User: Fold this.
Amino acid sequence: MSILEIKDLSVSYLGDDYKVRAVDHVSLNIEEGESLGIVGESGSGKSTLMLGILRLLNERTSKTEGEALFRGNDLISMNKKELAKVRWSEISVVFQKAMNVFSPVHTIETFLSDIYKVHRPNAKRQEIRKELTDLLAMVNLPKQVLRMYPHELSGGMLQRTSIAMSLMFRPKILVLDEATTALDVITQNQILSEILEIEEKLHLTRVLITHDMSVVANFCKKIAVFYAGRLMEVGYVEDVLVHPRHPYTRDLVKSYPTFSEDGTGTVISIPGTMIDLKKAYTGCPYANRCDRATEQCRTDRPMEDQMDEHWSYYCHNPLQGGETDESR
Amino acid sequence: MARYLSKRVLTGLLCVLVALCLNFALIHMAPGDPIRILVGNKEPNPELVQVLTEKYGLDQPALVQFEKYIGNLLHGDLGDSYYTGEPVLNIIKQKLPLTLLLAGSMVFIAVIIGGLLGVFCAKRAGGKLDTFLGSFTYLFDSVPGYWLGLMLILLFASRLKILPTTGLVSIRESYTGFAHILDMAKHLILPITTGVIGIVPYYFRITRASVIQQLGEDFIVTLRAAGMSEHKIFYKYVFRNAIIPTVTAVGIHLAYMIAGSTIIEIVFGLPGLGSYLMTSISRRDYPILMGFYLILSVSVAVMMIVVDFVYTLLDPRVRHVSD
Amino acid sequence: GNNTGNSTDTGSSATAAPTGTNAGTSSDTTGSTDASTGTTDSTDNTATGDTTGTTDTANAAMYGGTLVVGQTAEPITLNPDGTNDNGNLFIINNVFNKLLKINNQSEILPDLAQTYEISEDGLTYTFHLYENVTFHDGVAMTSDDVIFTFDEIIAQGGRAAEKFNTNIVSITATDDYTVVFQLEQPDASFLSKVAYDGCMILPRHIYEGKDFLSADALQDPVGTGPFVWSDWTKGSSITLVKNENYFMGPDVPYLDKVQFTFISDGDTAVQAFLNGEIDVLGGITPTDTSVIYDNPEVAKDVVMYASRFLLGFNMNVAPFDNLEVRKAFAYAMNADELISKAIKEQGLKTNTYISPLFNWAVNYNEDAATLSYDQAKAIECLENAGLTKNADGYYMDLTLDTFNYAPFTDLALVFQYEMAQVGINVTINMLEWAAWDEKVCQNKDYTITLTSAYQGPDVSALATSIVTDQYNNYYGYSNSEVDQLMADALTAKTMDEQAAIYGRVQEILAADIPYVPFSEWVGYFTYKAYLMGMPSSSDIVDYCSNGEYTYVYFTE
Amino acid sequence: MKKVKHLIHRYPRLIFGLCMAFVLVIVAVLAPLLSPYNPYDLSDDMMVGPSAAHWFGTDKLGRDILSMILYGSRTSLIIGISSAMIAAVIGTIIGAIAGYLGGKADLILGEIINIFMMIPSFFLILIIVALFGSGLFKVMIVIGLTSWTGNAKIMRGQALSLRSRTFVKASEAVGENRMKILIKHIIPNGIFPIVSNTTMGIASAILMESSLAFLGLGDPNTVSWGQLIANGKAYLTSGWWISFFGGIAIIYTVVAFFFIGDGLNVILNPKIRNVTNV
Amino acid sequence: MKADKMQSFAQDMAAEQIEKAQEIRKSDKTILQVTSLKKHYRQKNKRNVLVRSLDGVNFELKKGECLGIIGESGCGKSTLGRVLIGLEEATAGEILIDWEDINDLKKKNRKELRRKAQMVFQNPFDTFDNRIRIGDILTSTLKLHDIGKTSKTRKQIVLDSLKQVGLLPEEDFFKRYPNELSGGQLQRISILRSMLLKPEFIVADEPVSMLDVSVRAEVIHMLRRMAEQENTAVVFISHDIATTRYIADRIAVMYLGKIMEMGTANEVITSPMHPYTKALISNCGDADPRHKMEPLKVKGEPPSPMNIPEGCSFSDRCPYATDRCRSEEQTLHDFKEDGHLVRCRFALQHN
Ligand SMILES: Nc1ncnc2c1ncn2[C@@H]1O[C@H](COP(=O)(O)OP(=O)(O)OP(=O)(O)O)[C@@H](O)[C@H]1O
Ligand SMILES: Nc1ncnc2c1ncn2[C@@H]1O[C@H](COP(=O)(O)OP(=O)(O)OP(=O)(O)O)[C@@H](O)[C@H]1O
Ligand SMILES: [Mg+2]
Ligand SMILES: [Mg+2]
Assistant:
């Protein structure tokens, strides 16, 4: 059963003299209990998708169209009050810059209690403290952390606290936007492993936004590949990464050096740069960099093609199974 | 913390000393002989001039004079006015309260008005109303205080005759008690209005900028994502954090306003520090000039330290750094 | 060594603003004080007789009220005989009395001395005091206090000291109410000296042994005057209350209180006056005369002083060593315009080197006048002096030093404009009094200056401006004949002799033109029309001295 | 045309301010042509109210106020621009050296900046001008010499942050000497807020000069707005127009420069405009 | 006379010796030798706390060799880079570039040092002053070092090299401003600028970590190609182990200011000996989901260089740590005598 159904969602940033289509008619199904990794280059609209769904964007300078059905209720058209109820207790987020996620002049406890009281207005002090202590324990932090200010914590501790904070109301969906990118690999792995454990306990649905393919490969079941605001390909990690259908997915995979036995395999770069989202274009945004691009790719927008129920891609000229290892 | 504070005090002292040196040098380089002013412009009695010059030590080299001044200063002696013979400290004690009252109430009112306007505009940053009010504050900024004072006098005192022109009290009535305070308040309406209009933009801008900055902080997004109401986010977080720079500004501004209200004092004939200063300049009353200057620089220095201190109380990050 | 009577008037200013209270903050500090001024009417040296200070028709309605007087400067000393201070002058005038006093028309009136006599040889002056005078603390005033006062003035170097310290042989009392002054040489101006500022009779029992020049100068004054010192709110006002035991009473004074309020800025004071916040503007003369003069609620009395506006040359520097150049300036100056535009008719055009106040001296030689306005002649003189126009069309470029307060700022502008018309480019350099004093008076580092000089109360005071190396002679003027004449004038026996000498001096000055006087200083004593008995009003002039509020009462 | 409209919409104050300043400059340049009278001429029509002959009336000496205001723009612009420039140059150099060199130089210069900041500048200017006399040139220099601290502080901050920027490090790594880096990279890249601050400084200097003139410390040989107001002060009740128009002229000019300064600031700091909120 | 002769003889002797020594050195390919290099900082507001960013680093670099340096954030990689090219002065230790002490070089001729040691920075978007055209940036670098006689020849040199690295059309790039280029292009120009001086070695501090994955390869390839072409040695700093392995000949693993392990890239990656290296590598995932990893779990967080634990600096996190590890300082040791150095006395035991 899908817990979050994104239907034809578009998000634009409106400037005085420009309009950026940061998310462009994206449809995506997220099943309950599933873990989805969203990858894509910088500026491909990963964060915007998340902010758009949670309606955290400035309504004056951005526009969100389409639907995002959380258990059948559309978040985009929902009124503020209902939305406030969904936020954090049903869907919560871990942001990238953990240092800035907490108010610098309040202690962790003050900040967390305030958030706790948003959904449990009548909670007593004792109760809150106990709850918070438990939360911190869940991410292996001592309760002393509560009395500290954000600047007194290390990056890893802050990220853990941030994760604890997002788990406060045992949400159904946890979105991690580059939550561990800034940390070194060892800590990153520690935290992700801890999340996997908690996830099982709490039956979480997890959306992991990152541009590190290896993290998705190791910690997610499904992967969605974004490019220039559009969804390129989505499916199980084993399918998409091993036998990509979309040329972009293939190229992206090939730009990562691997540890494969001798480690001598070459890596490639994709020529050219991503198109400017401020400018209007037709067809596929990857057409200008793609070696398989046809005339159609430049004019017609590719529609969804499905390999199976879980695996779909948007390409006029997709790779067939055997072409995967073909080098450019 | 203590070390940090003591360092601040030390630099503060240094600043005061340098300010004094500068002032001393300036005053003593200026043309005009205080003694000649003092003895009057009748045919000066050379003996009297001699005696007075010696009495005030003006015959000694400037460096010696300065040394002596600093020496006396360390004993809390600011010297006596050449002109009236009164101890400078007494004169300051006499004049300072009014100036402080004036500066204090101006800053106080300006903080409130400017602060509220700033918050109001920050919430609508970039909007029409914000642009309009923002432009308006520049208009306020551009109005010369003395001109505004004159126009207010012209309108409210000369034409409408609803407020007094000048002075601090109605001389004729010699009120006492509460009536006296009311009377004083009435006299201060125009001067304070003039002053407030001049400094409101300052607080408006500080508040607006810091509220906008706070609104852009990532943790605000967190709070929104957590479902907290905008209202609560604003008052509990944005406002609390945005107030810090404003508080800082108040302290230092207050110190500067001691000098800043000079023109207002002059226009409205208020017997404060500033207007007395003008008189003392033309009298070449060195001890007064030095004394006033000292008060000014000390209060700025003290305010800077106080503000630093308050800052550390308000912002744990600074506390951390300064430990 | 014969310089008796040659002494300048103490506290008089030969420079700077003509009234101490006129020119705003700046001029106060100059110490120039000549708002009240007396000239001896030397033709009349008999007593004016017994005048009672009471009006004929005193009634109850006249009593009471608080008079609020505006004043720009605050006192710096409260000893009336101490150092020079125009801030205390009008205030102290109402707390103390002198032996004689000077009224608004520069006439000498009796004060504590009911009558006086002068010996035939002019060397003995005998004063007979009122017998019912007590100081405010209840102690009786006697000749002892008078002797003490004059002794102290001389001993401590009070403001009037120089008038008395050379010519007085002795001061003695024949009884409690008779004082005799013995002079070394006759001095026609002696009475005016006694009647002038700085000769207030002080209580011996209070001032004895005190250093009244500095240390004790600020003690609360105790005098014999119509009002009793009450309190001083520093920076704001001084209050005097009625002296119930005034020796001219019991009818006077009428007022309960007089409050002097300090408004350092003259314009603000005028506003306050118009708003009814103060009753008497007094010596604060508004720049904007129209608001005062056409106002039916305001009364004003003319007061004329021996203060003169003039243009001074530095005769030691070229081209002002050249008479033709000085003449050119004299021709180029339009006194009428200067008076109408810059000083707003608060002046009286003059063309003599002696103030018209001393008309007996002026009249002797009426031909000796300054040059009258004539641009063509001015240009001619410039050409005569051998000057030619430069590229900008000017004969010369020079800097005028003057003061940075009214009316000099405006005078300078009008002057600048007038000079430009005859091809003289004037740059104005406005200075504070202190800086001006250093530059012009002490260092003589200037070319021309616009200033005003007090040449009173006696005509002999002219000497300080024109005798070689005298203090106020910053023109660098030196004429041995003038030096001799001025010395002679002091010892001349009769008025006619003196007049003849001064006539000759005027003649020489008119020919040499060391400076160009163009206007007398005319002041207006301004007050609300509902006040009667102001010291400047003509009906009480016979018994009220300048700045004295004994006879003032409210009509509403 | 559309572009102009767009610019106005985007930077309303900047465009507005530039237009106002443009008019002002035109007025200053063409003052002799535009003025109906010579402002130094004393006519016999003294204290005439606004009328057909004298639009803004005349003052106590019979000078035409409109002409004085037109000519006064020259004084204001000269004083404002020159002193702001002096302040900009001093501030930029001191600030850049302190911020970029750091270490002892920063310690000393930083403390000097602090000390000068602590001295209330209006007060200092007042003392200097009152004591030493008031020529246009003197006032200009004094204002310039006392108001550089703001620039220095800004420039120091800029230099401090630029110092750690990669392109500065890279220039060092390539072998450029520090003096050259200071001139080639630090100052040009850090100058923008100084430009905006200097524009504001012009406004402040004009205000400052007018305040001095009001206190009787102006240069009597030139027409200036502050003096005009001071002159009118005594005639407030009978000749309001004397002070009134001078004040309006000052406000107009100062607002123009404040608007430009603010506009430049907005361009520099677009973040201020596009902040997220609800 | 005699003394003179003696002296000149001594001089001749000395000259001879120096010549000989130089010959020996010239034949040796080592162009960079670093001995017990230390760099300590004082915290800005806590002056009594010492930050030991580099705490005794030794290695040498041969001509044309590429040494990769990996390690967690804050271990001192960038500090090492800055000290190596003389942007900062070392607290202690010696850096010999081409057998000349870096400090002498600096004193003698700063520019020459710059010509020998160059750096490529992490953030290509900030490496150039946006107000100056690419062409001017590059030609002014040449001018600074007196390469090319006239401005025309300098321009030609720049155009040629732009063409060589594939920034085509080169005339177009010459005229562009930095903000008109993509990160990959900028980083290539950054490398190009360094290589224009034909340095002996180049320090590349995370040259690709700010770039999109899709353009990283071209930058890495270019760096490698140019280095090979000019026989320039490279110190490649990164925390991306896979990339480092891809480019480096040898890899040094740093932890808290010390090198923990150093050896050929393949050796270090495929058979790491130090527990820390093991942890680091095992935690690095592969983009291929078929290669599932088995991460070595390590306790705690990296301690800060402000309080480095006694003994082995990794002892507090090491799963194998013994009491000896916590008290005894470890040294880099070549246990297998194959040039694979490890700072752990138990290295062989764990394998
Ligand atoms: N406030 C904004 N105004 C205008 N454009 C914006 C704004 N925020 C983001 N964009 C643009 O929207 C596009 C998508 O941005 P987004 O932050 O969602 O990308 P991302 O995939 O999260 O990138 P990254 O990996 O760098 O986080 C980018 O082209 C970006 O430039
Ligand atoms: N100027 C400095 N003053 C004080 N401490 C410094 C300074 N520069 C670096 N450090 C400290 O030295 C340590 C090493 O820093 P360095 O930048 O070399 O690490 P790094 O390995 O490059 O890290 P990263 O992977 O994050 O770039 C850090 O703890 C850092 O805080
Ligand atoms: Mg993002
Ligand atoms: Mg680094």
Observations:
- Chain D touches chain C through 23 residues (CB under 8 Å).
- The pocket of magnesium ion (ligand 4) is lined by residues E 77-78, 205 (CB under 6 Å).
- Chain D has eleven helices and no strands.
